Amino acid sequence: PEAEKQADVQTFCFKVVDLLEKLAVSTNASFRLSALMLLMLTLNYSYALFQAMLGIFFSAKSAVLIEDVPFTVEDIRNDKTPPQNIHNLYNQVGINCFIAAAIYVVVGAVSLCQVRLNKRQEYMVT
């Protein structure tokens, strides 16, 4: 089911990009680039929000996400305080999600700066 959801989101993104390309056929290249960059910014920040939410749920040790925690049988057998090792793995995965969200935000901020820089250059006379 998760793979089907990802495929549906990917299909939706491709349809939106195709629609933007059809819309921008009669306009100049900078508009197409700006429209594509705005689409990417929207997706970028939605992915950042998704990663941040996952980080919160992993930090809260949600039982639904146990399949995504990378532990082995030996981790459980060799643990002196049984839930502590699993809790540490939950925390590590949560931290990784927060790091991914931060990277998405930084890349989005750089993209936003590029979009604004491109818009300024449109109005400059050379």
From TrEMBL:
Keyword field contains Transmembrane helix: yes
Major place of residence: membrane
Signal peptide range: none
Classification via PANTHER family: RIBONUCLEASE KAPPA
The protein's name: Ribonuclease, RNase K b
UniProt entry keywords in alphabetical sequence: Membrane, Transmembrane, Transmembrane helix
InterPro entries: RNase_K
